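tool_call predict_complex ligand=zinc ion
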Amino acid sequence: MVRSMNRFLLFSFTFFALSQASAAEVSITMDDFNVHQETLLPANKRNDRILKALKKHKIKAGLFVTCKYLQDEGDRKLLAEWSTQGHLIGNHTVNHRRFDSRISTEEQIAEIQQCEEQLKDQKNFKKIFRFPMLAEGDTVEKRDAVRSWMQKNSYRWGHVTIDASDWYVDQRLRDKIAKDPQFDLNKFKDFYLKHMWERAQYYNELSKKVLGHEVKHTLLVHFNLLNALFLDDLIQMFKDHGWKVIDAQKAFKDPVYKKLPNSMPSGQSLIWGLAKESGKFESELRYPGENDTYEKEKMDALGL
Ligand SMILES: [Zn+2]
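tool_result ok
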């Protein structure tokens, strides 16, 4: 009896361990903090709804702030709510310029330094940086110069593993309600959730192929109307699919975030960069990894 009980317990533990091990993990990382967009909900309402969704699911996100949006005390107050509620605050430059041929290494570094000046008093500010549009430089020399500056200045990389086009869905949503205020917003929700699930699966499968295992993902979304409306549904969707939704700080502890792919064009999802570096997945890698052009026809066909 005791032996069969032990065997039963062993079986249960093994089953439990296996089922736990198979759950993919994802965290929410939100970019830009554009509190100056005029749309259906004012900035304070958007902020409240997004923070409420995170609180409901008991998770801490990472917010990558574009500092040009911090124009007055009111803006800084909205940001402080993120900090006091325990969310990670990261740097996303002052002006959100793409690091390409039009911007020098010195200008790029100044963008990071000046944004840090505006963020450093936030309680939960950490020296973690995410490149605007995930563009890490148009040449190997510029890419490596900023990398070495970041290392010397104790900056960590705010890599994205699951990239997507929520910003484009948001743009179409705002255009649609401007023309047709009665439009059924649930149609946007359905498209949005489906799109995000599709991209999450793609990058998760790619990580298994490239690294041989899943990573603690960082999902890229933006501070916008779309997420003010549907972030709660988005988080719930991952849970319904059996994924574990975790804190951004915990995700960034995964050793994968220390990797700096030696591939050009630089940037994109970290998983994309590692796949590119390996040279083995050319047929599975489109460039850019994500873009509005990939979603336009689908949304047109749905009348969104
Ligand atoms: Zn951005």
